[in-house]
Specification:
Elements: E1 9-14, E2 21-26, H1 31-38, E3 46-52, E4 59-65, E5 70-75, H2 81-96, E6 132-136, E7 141-142, H3 143-149, H4 154-171, H5 176-180, H6 187-190, H7 196-200, H8 203-209, H9 219-234, E8 242-245, E9 254-256, E10 263-266, E11 273-276, H10 277-288, E12 290-292, E13 299-301, H11 303-316, H12 321-325, H13 327-349, H14 357-360, H15 363-373, H16 376-390
Antiparallel strand pairs: 1-2, 3-4, 4-5, 5-6, 7-9, 8-11, 9-10, 12-13
Amino acid sequence: SIINHQPKTTYQYRYRDMGPKLEIALTTHTLEELVPIVSEYSPSRLIKRTQLFGGYSGSNYRINLEDGSTFVLKITNGYAADHAELMCRTAHRLGASGYSDCCLPITKRESTLDGDSEFRFVSLKEKHGVPAFLLTFVDGTQADKVMREHPHLAQNVMRGIGGGLARMHAAAGMTWAEAQKTDLRWYKKDGGCCDVQDQVDEKILETIEQCKEIEGHDFVPFYRKELKLLQREMSLEKTLAMGITHGDPFADNVLVSNETGNLSAFIDMEDVCIGPLLFDLACCAIGCCFKDSAVDDTQVIDVQLFEALLGGYCKERPLPRVEQDHFVPFMKLALLCNCCWRFVKFNIQMKDDEVPDEARNSYLELQRRIEYLGGTDAMKQIEELVEKCSK
């Protein structure tokens, strides 16, 4: 059951490589209102809270405690408590497996737990009962900002992202059979991996076909054609390596050093789940490794960034043959998930007067990337780079 309380929000479109990203500044909580939540995790007194803006799903605060410790408190508007708990439990498994390159959820104090309480991570002490949880705090600057302002660091940033993602994937790797039995968030039934299972099950297609306002829209036949290719590729899932995936590994969800570009941590783990490792890596590539073409208004693969990402990744986790062979198709299907999300969000779900034309047509950027990847030259170039980095 989704929490019904929806705080007052203001909207601003902030574009990124995969943009537009709808930045939401949610109603603030006073320090006093956060004290009951924080006290479930630490006996130390809350002395300062700083609101962190950005993201879709909640209010984020940097929390400073009297004992000198610092955390991030996330209040997850729109999430069900059991969903938030499942997400935290999945992310916590990374830490338990020795992985530390991300913000990890903190368990509540034993004295605040009700015996066999089902919520070991999630607090329901927010004034409206909205689920909240505490995360480790990591200092750093968003990777997309560092690459934009310090382009000489861009390749090092991408090598670090690749290496960090590979270590995440290796931390809790499993087979398909093992994934079927997991008590963690599983993309087949709990969401995650850009909700690719909803694509496979044609739930998104049904949403599109039921909307009379877009009947005859050029996107619809394009989507139907690409969906068949997506379903074909995802039918290989039983042959793919499984593990904990970030789910949204774009550069604005990564913190790095502003001086060196070295990886600090992955953040915004709300999409974390057990899923195909190849999907997560392909998703990172399509979100971080495109650039504007020098000859027209299209976008092409940024060879240097792509090679840095794959080089950093393969140094930590070599790609199995099946992942090499299906890398480009998985880039296309990851793009289709994001492209379709934009189309549905800004052309079906949101009212006309809420959506600027730039957002309404933003799906076209990703549609063109899919079409570009379908070209023989682009496909061959990427396949050669994957082969090179995998040696």
